[in-house]
């Protein structure tokens, strides 16, 4: 008897899932023709900050891929995803390493996400860590990689990733931390911004952290070998 009760719920969940996937694909198509996103993560952060600070506007200024310093592009690739140009959006070796770390700790502490996967999560999903969310994230990442060229994916990432308390995107980060524009970032400045990405709020509040300087020097040494996408818009 219980099967007759549960079937409608299963069908409803399936239809909701299909509708969500179609919704994501439509937004990706719009991003591909130039629409600048206001990501799900940005919306969540704005809703979190408004009660604490009243009327609060995020620091966020869009900048075209070709106008962002190559120093920053190389630093982010060197720090976050060395194989970004070559893989199809998912690095299964990194995911396997993350699974082993999670198994040792008994909880989810790492995800093995690529730049493409991080972008998918920021655009469409919550920051909650679960294997179900990871599975949806992987599926949508493959769709995004089929729909958009690498330079567009990287442009979307660099313009929507969190870089501090209410700070999103390369241009806002460059102004927030160094009082300059994203096309003027030096190699040292870019390396520091790249190091901040895994914990931007921490580094926003602890800008003189010794770990920030040490890790930035490591990224500086890796930047020479970092491969970045060409600007196909040129």
Task: Walk me through what this model shows.
Helices cover 63% and strands 2% of the residues. The chain has helices spanning 2-32, 40-53, 70-80, 92-105, 115-124, 131-147, 150-160, 170-178, 187-196, 200-205, 210-223; strands at residues 162-164, 167-168. Strands 1-2 form a two-stranded antiparallel sheet. Helix 5 (115-124) crosses helix 7. The protein is globular. The protein starts with a helix and ends in an 11-residue tail after the last helix. 34% of the residues are buried. The model has no long low-confidence stretch (mean pLDDT 87).
How many domains is the backbone divided into? 1
pLDDT averaged over residues: 87
The strands making up the biggest β-sheet line up spatially as 1-2
Query: From the coordinates shown, what is the CATH architecture?
Result: Orthogonal Bundle
- Low-confidence stretches are none
Helix/strand-derived class?
Answer: mainly alpha
Strand content: under 5%
Radius of gyration, in angstroms, nearest whole number:
19 Å
CATH topology: Penicillin binding protein transpeptidase fold
**Main CATH class:** Mainly Alpha
């Amino acid at each position: 008897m219980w099967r007759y009760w549960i079937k409608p719920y299963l069908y409803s969940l399936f239809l909701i899932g299909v509708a969500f996937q179609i919704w994501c694909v439509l937004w990706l198509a719009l991003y591909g023709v130039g629409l600048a996103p206001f990501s799900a993560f940005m919306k969540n952060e704005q809703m979190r900050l408004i009660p604490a600070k009243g009327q609060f506007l995020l620091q966020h200024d869009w900048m075209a891929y070709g106008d962002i310093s190559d120093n920053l592009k190389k630093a982010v690739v060197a720090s976050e995803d060395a194989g970004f140009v070559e893989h199809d959006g998912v690095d299964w070796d990194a995911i396997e390493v993350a699974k082993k770390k999670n198994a040792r700790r008994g909880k989810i502490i790492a995800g093995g996400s690529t730049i493409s996967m991080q972008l998918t999560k920021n655009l469409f999903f919550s920051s909650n860590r679960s294997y179900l969310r990871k599975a949806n994230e992987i599926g949508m990442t493959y769709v995004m990689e089929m729909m958009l060229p690498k330079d567009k994916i990287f442009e979307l990432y660099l313009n929507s990733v969190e870089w501090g308390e209410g700070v999103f995107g390369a241009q806002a980060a460059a102004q927030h931390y160094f009082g300059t524009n994203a096309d003027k970032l030096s190699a040292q400045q870019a390396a520091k911004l790249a190091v901040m990405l895994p914990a931007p709020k921490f580094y926003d509040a602890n800008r003189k952290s010794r770990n920030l300087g040490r890790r930035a020097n490591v990224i500086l040494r890796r930047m020479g070998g970092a491969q970045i996408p060409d600007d196909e818009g040129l």
